[in-house]
Design a protein that fits this description.
Blueprint (H helix, E strand, L loop, with lengths): L3 E7 L22 H10 L4 E8 L4 H7 L9 E2 L4 H12 L6 E6 L7 H10 L5 E7 L4 E4 L5 E5 L5 E10 H10 L8 H7 L4 E5 L10 H9 L19 E15 L3 E4 L2 E4 L3 E2 L7 H13 L5 H4 L13 H13 L3 E10 L9 H12 L6 E6 L5 H4 L3 E13 L5
Parallel strand pairs: 1-2, 1-4, 2-3, 5-9, 14-15
Antiparallel strand pairs: 4-8, 5-8, 6-7, 10-13, 10-16, 11-12, 14-16
């Protein structure tokens, strides 16, 4: 049986956070941030043990934060994150696990599904990182603080933790890596030539870095936040689920392809619209906005505004996803039905599911794309245009007013 250990890095001083108490020991709805982070791993059936790396000066704070939790003895960290992880790995070397998941102490909203995805990827790769695709436009800044150009975001991802590895490989990589101040363990692994797989992360799994981040985390909790099966404070807040529905129509016009759910589908005609006329993404965007009571796509991206002329619709869906994240929530499920006689959707369905997941950082099993006809009835039956309807299920902190 595969033995997996979680290594939580809690040795930082949190200079950007400020204040007399390092962020990992600040109270978050009662328990310390660190205690909530630990609970996510202690409650997961695949995790055999949890090892925490701490700053030598924080032993009293650590002991107070983890009272009642069954953990391996803490390990003193080093001068940098890279040093701290290496020391943590060395502490496990006498009884080495098969896999190790390395996680930031200041990411308390990790869920079991993200842990599952990282562990599953380690069956095929030597390393795996929870990550989110970059959806915002990325700018490069010059020395004067001005924009020096736009960076192509194609293929760019934001790395989160946990970052999982086969234990012997990552230990060897850390032992060989010079003190270069590498900021995550995937960089150490990549330097050693290890294959590192990217798997979908979660917007809720953000890192508490500033006081504003802590306030955001507090807003995600309620007084009724449950306890975990072990009796420790749960990493997950109390949630409520809300649903929204979207519908969109576009007529056919000249062209040789249609954009559907972010995928270019060859066709003898195109769809007419102010943007790229992607009925699938438009319906999904309205569904997500409806679930959080944030109006519709036209409110956020008016067709009268020339900047959205021909714009790719992934911008609209990504914007709706960010609004959900800003409220401390997440998208639980998306379901879209494309309505047309032609083109055939089936051959393109996997690519559409993957593209929607990439835009929003969702696992494929949280996205459903279906297609139907109207049996040659109505405007879609006559081939005059296409329609789409969508439903979004969104998870928000309980009691939040949208």
């Amino acid at each position: 049986m595969t033995r997996t250990v979680a290594l939580i890095v809690a040795a930082g001083r949190g200079t950007r956070f400020g204040g007399p108490v390092p962020k990992q020991y600040c109270a978050l709805g009662g328990p310390a941030v660190l205690a909530r982070t630990i609970a996510a791993f202690r409650d997961h059936p695949a995790i055999a043990a949890v090892q925490v790396v701490i700053h030598p000066d924080d032993r009293e704070r650590y002991d107070a934060a983890v009272i009642g939790l069954d953990l391996l003895p803490p390990v003193a960290g080093g001068a940098s994150r890279q040093d701290s992880v290496r020391l943590g790995l060395e502490s496990l070397a006498d009884a080495p696990p098969d896999l190790v998941l390395i996680h930031d102490a200041a990411r308390p909203f990790l869920d079991a599904a993200a842990i599952d995805r990282v562990i599953a990827a380690l069956g095929e790769a030597e390393g795996a990182v929870a990550a989110l695709p970059v959806t915002d436009t990325v700018k490069r800044q010059d020395a004067a603080g001005n924009s020096a150009g736009t960076v192509d975001r194609t293929g760019l991802w934001r790395a989160q933790t946990p970052q999982g590895f086969r234990f012997p490989a990552i230990l060897a990589a850390h032992r060989e890596a010079p003190a270069e101040g590498l900021t995550d363990d995937a960089a150490v692994a990549e330097r050693a030539g290890l294959a590192v797989r990217l798997v979908p992360g979660d917007e809720r799994n953000f890192k508490i870095t500033t006081e504003d981040d802590l306030r955001r985390a507090e807003a995600m909790l309620t007084e009724t936040s449950p306890t975990s099966p072990s009796g420790a404070p749960s990493a997950a807040p109390a949630w409520e689920f809300r649903m929204g529905m979207g519908f969109d129509v576009h007529r056919f016009g000249p062209g040789d392809r249609v954009w559907l759910c972010g995928v270019a589908v060859p066709h003898d005609r195109g769809l007419i619209g102010h943007s790229d006329a992607d009925v699938g993404l438009h319906a999904l965007t309205d569904a997500v906005l409806g679930a959080i009571g944030a109006g519709d796509i036209g409110h956020h991206f008016p067709p009268s505004d020339p900047q959205w002329k021909g714009a790719p619709s992934d911008l609209f869906l990504a914007h709706a996803g960010r609004l959900v994240a800003e409220r401390g929530g997440s998208i639980a499920q998306l379901d879209v039905t494309l309505i047309c006689e032609r083109p055939k959707i089936g051959p393109h369905r996997p690519a559409m599911v993957a593209r929607i997941g990439e835009i929003l950082g969702l696992a494929p099993d949280r996205v459903s794309v279906k297609a139907t006809t109207t049996e040659q009835l109505g405007f879609t039956g006559r081939g005059e245009g296409m329609a789409a309807q969508a439903i979004a299920t969104v998870r928000l902190p309980a009691g939040q007013d949208v």
